[in-house]
Specification:
It contains six helices and seven strands. With 231 residues, it is an alpha/beta fold. Pfam families: Aldo_ket_red.
């Protein structure tokens, strides 16, 4: 992720030149056009567009921004599936249903507005997944389990998922895919006059475009949003 961000920022910075005073900007839209392939509408039915969303900040409205930007970047009206990684909680605090609810409500709204077809979760144990399932109007279709935390799926989680028709998937993402300090460091290295310490990452979305009939990845990438926090 860090390498992708650094390469994009460096290439973007070299193209805009020095005539733009980045110190005064509230928004920097850093895109390398040739690195992003929009989906041909004629091929849309043959492709599955899935995403995993990592919330870095604690604002549930970030979800709508992330989905809208992903749809716009890929040239599609909706995403086939979105998995949300639990937003960060303070050390010593367990992830609760109350903490997840505002994020899930935002996802449910996007399903009802036909921006997403299916929604899923990541790293929930059996109790957390059951609580979410019983409360949610739009039920989770999948739950990712980290390979680092278990080499065998917990039997209680497997039984519950089978009973409720929830697909269990595996992943090996680190607990924190991109921390604030790492983002600011790569920003400073790539665009030195940006006042990197003022920029806070809000969310990171990883997308994959898969050819359904062949099960191969046609394209994949990251989209990240950060805000400038000027005190």
């Amino acid at each position: 992720v860090r390498d992708c961000i650094q390469k994009t920022l460096t290439e973007w910075s070299s193209k805009i030149g020095q005539d733009q005073n980045q110190e005064t900007l509230e928004v920097l839209e850093c895109t390398v056009a040739q690195a992003l392939e929009k989906i041909n509408p004629e091929e849309r039915d043959e492709l599955k567009v899935s995403a995993k969303l990592f919330i870095v900040g604690s604002n549930s409205s970030s979800i709508r921004d992330a989905v809208d930007l992903a749809c716009s970047a890929l040239g599609v009206a909706q995403l086939d599936s979105v998995i949300i990684a639990p937003p960060p909680v303070e050390d010593g605090i367990n992830l609760s249903l109350e903490y997840l609810q505002p994020y899930w409500k935002e996802l449910e709204s996007l399903v009802k507005n036909k921006k997403i077809v299916a929604i899923g979760t990541s790293d929930l144990d059996k109790t957390q997944l059951e609580q979410l399932y019983l409360w949610a109007q739009v039920k989770p279709s999948s739950n990712q389990v980290n390979l680092a935390s278990c080499c065998v799926m917990p039997p209680d989680l497997t039984a519950f998922a089978k009973e409720c028709d929830i697909q269990l998937l595996t992943h090996n993402d680190p607990k924190e895919l991109l921390c604030e300090a790492s983002f600011q460091e790569v920003l400073q290295e790539s665009i030195p006059n940006t006042r990197a310490k003022e920029w806070i990452p809000l969310w990171l979305l990883r997308y994959s475009v898969i050819v359904k009939s062949r099960g191969i990845i046609k394209s994949k990438g990251y989209i990240i949003q950060a805000k400038r926090n000027v005190s």
